[in-house]
Design a protein that fits this description.
By secondary structure, this protein is an alpha+beta fold. Helices cover 33% and strands 13% of the residues. The chain has 2 domains: 95 residues, Homing Intron 3 (I-Ppo) Encoded Endonuclease, Chain A (Alpha-Beta Complex); 47 residues, no CATH class. The protein is globular. It starts with a helix and ends in an 8-residue tail after the last helix.
Length: 168
């Protein structure tokens, strides 16, 4: 890795305490994962920033068929202390255990965890109320609301159908 590549990467990371999420402030995918361009003018490649961070801190490539998972459930986090390797099966098991799969909540019921109190939440309770209010007018699509509030369309879908933030 070149020094300029590392400087460019770290210039887009909000490094905080060792136990806190280190947020990626650059480009993101529709699912909130950081996206980082590497290569030169002839060969360009987009890589996940969490994967890039893991490889950087572990001085090795992620093995074939293995994923870099977040212990913090924050897709834009690049803190190496929050990253670990696992299979897709591990990822799905963790998602199920943490209540991140639609319709699959721990204990078989809806999770009442207060999302706005979590460090990784992008939205406040007031923003969720506003999303629901705007959607109810019929003038805003879920896609448009996602753009306005800088979250993916799936997040908006879960909010307006009360699959998340259901206590509001």
């Amino acid at each position: 890795m070149t020094k300029s590549l590392l400087i460019r990467f770290w210039s887009k990371v909000d490094v905080r305490g060792p136990d806190e999420c280190w947020e990626w402030a650059g480009a993101k995918t529709s699912k909130g994962y950081g996206a980082f361009r590497i290569g030169n003018h002839r060969i360009r490649k987009i890589v996940g920033t969490h994967r890039f961070s893991w490889e950087l801190h572990n001085a090795q490539e992620v093995p074939e068929g293995v994923m870099v998972l977040h212990s913090c459930d924050n897709p834009s986090c690049v803190n190496p202390a929050h990253l670990h390797l696992g299979t897709n099966q591990d990822n799905m098991r963790e998602a199920s255990e943490r209540g991140r799969l639609p319709g699959k909540r721990p204990g078989g019921s809806r999770s009442k965890r207060r999302c706005s109190k979590r460090r990784c939440s992008k939205l406040t309770e007031d923003q969720v109320r506003e999303i629901r209010r705007l959607h109810a007018t019929g003038r805003y699509t879920q896609t448009r609301l996602g753009q306005m509030f800088e979250v993916c369309t799936t997040t908006i879908h879960y909010i307006v159908h009360r699959e998340t933030w259901d206590w509001l």
